[in-house]
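Changelog-linked ticket: DGJ example.
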Amino acid sequence: MLVPVFPMRTFVLCTLLSSLALAADPIRFLPASKTFVLDAGPVTSAIAINNNNELQPVYFGPRLWRDDDFKPAVASREWASFDLSAATTPKEYAGYGGGLFVEPCLKVTLPNGVRDVVLKYQSHEIKGDTLEIRVKDISYDLAVSLHYRVFPQGVIRKHAVITNRTAAPLTLESAQSGSLHVPPGEGYRLTYLYGRWAGETQMIREDIHPGVKVMESRRGNTSHQANPWFAIDGPEPASEISGRVWYGALGWSGNWRVAVEQSSHQQVRVTAGLNTFDFAHSLKPGESLETPPLYLGFSDQGFGEASRAFHRFQREFIFPGGLTSKPRPILYNSWEATEMNVNEPGQVELAKKAATIGVERFVMDDGWFGARDTDHAGLGDWFVSRKKFPNGLKPLIDQVKALGMDFGLWVEPEMVNPDSDLYRAHPDWAMHFPDRPRTTARNQLILNLARNDVKEYIFSALDKLVTENDIAFLKWDMNRNVSEPGWPEVAPEEQKKLWLQYTRNVYAIIDRLRQKHPRLEIESCSGGGGRIDLGILTRTDQVWTSDNTDALDRLKIQEGFTYPYAPKAMMAWVTDVPNFNGRSTPLRFRFLVAMQGSLGIGNNLNKWSTEDFALAKKMVAWYKGVREIIQHGQLFRLASPRDPSGFAATQYVSSDAKKSVVFATLHSQQYGRIVPNLRLQGLNAQTVYKVADIDNRFSTVESGASLMDRGLPLRLTGDYAATAFTLEAQ
Ligand code: DGJ
């Protein structure tokens, strides 16, 4: 039911009653103050209809219990003829128009040349934990539905549906998912992730100054270079364990944009959604555009709790299977061992060795299909190479299964090599602009998945592969970014829709595949961590964190990853040394770093010594005993690998605080300095825990209070030293 707003007088008598009666509802409308209150567990967000009938965000922070604290919202006064009320009033979903100079959520061009949108409240509908607020332009029938859902972990999801109800087509030039306003003031800080191939999810924290800072991808996927997540703390600086942190993440794997802005009126606000770069989305009469979801949250216990709350939310509401899903199996992947030189005897040999360590899933990587001997050929031809597998994949899969593992396969469905049967048959299927060169990267072009026929071909190829073979898992790779985003088959004014439709169709293929093959699991890989976001994570079970598997570099990559994303999704392999960067670290160190996420092994097992196998067996068995805590527990980042001391530590605590796992690493011994006792977190102070190290050389029985205040003694000396502990309530 859509509820119009009644005149305020009508509600005077029942204001008190209704606010009390509805206090338990997670979302409620307070007629007296015309305020929508959204309670998401420990977090409250409030949006009011102000005296200009505009939606004005009035609060986002810790849970407020008293509805009467919300007073009617009044639009800000104009500051000068240069900053009218439209520019100084916080807007929940601002259209570009009426004198707005900050980042708009919506920018439109009408066919008559009008480029002005002023959105005013129309109606709303509350259903349990969801809210829809409808706004409309003051002159034209351009409507926006703002959708909200609250989650008990302190997360609020919002997205917008923009509908052209006019009689003529119009063009959207910016369509954002929504905005976040922190309390007005200065001195806030921004934390975000940047990187590059082999150096993803690097964390940076900087002061927010007046102006706009844009994080974005123009690459057609989420990107290695930036990730659609941000956190803002302040004005008093937050730490891992204290302080106010607002955070947000987009659920989108295509071109995205997050603009963090401090206005000249001390308002820090974030606007996030589809990238405006090369964006022009025409809407015919009656058509709508739905934006990707924006997830927002708040913690008043620092960055650590911000991450833990977001992880809990992801495990319950984002990851496929939610709370019923099991911990990730330990996988072996053949890539670093054999690269494209795959064949049945070679893979069986590796599978036999992997099984002895305790591996549960054997994944054959690139090279099994078409004419794929090098990266110059084969992509697009998703049929088994009879040269390498004369009897198909079945004999290999049967042997893998007989060894007690399930079988996974690498694919890169969005790509085509010019040297492939697919490209020879359908050169027009690759993205291109007519009469212009097609830029190859890793000798490959991108299929235009925005096209329906291409989408259908890719779905059929993957469906056939999974139907004909007993495949439990696909590693879905994407090894280049978009260039020449042409779509010559559609009208020029429709062509920029490629960006949006491409990502939607990637999602559609995965969704359809999973629906048809409910037991199939998928990893999102894009040359490492090029496609990690909450859009892909709603439909894939894990992500490949980085092609950089050097354990020391990984400590920082993994730390950055865990700011937004739960360790369960973070694939971490142990691989051979020297690594691609020339560094060699001990196998034990490599294991203890990889075990801080979902463990995988990518070594050439044919080169391992008896001692290596013995160590790996021990580590894998230990990991199996604690992975439930690592993958489904709470993460505490105790000591950062960014600290110059070279010491880093993480701790995972089961949700009932009865079990815990601690990892500690020392990159290099400096000046003989002793690593101080490690103060643990998240334990029950009154509980007594039995503590044991991974080598069974140290054990103690101590209270949670003692372990959290006096700390755990560590005997880490030398370079690339690593240890781990388990804690169990007595
Ligand atoms: C890039 C991936 O990140 C690697 O793990 C591997 O699968 C290669 N592609 C294969 O081409």
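Closing comment: Example verified and attached. Residues 335, 365-366, 410, 477, 479, 525, 527-528, 544, 547 surround DGJ (CB under 6 Å). Residues 610-632 form the longest helix (23 residues).
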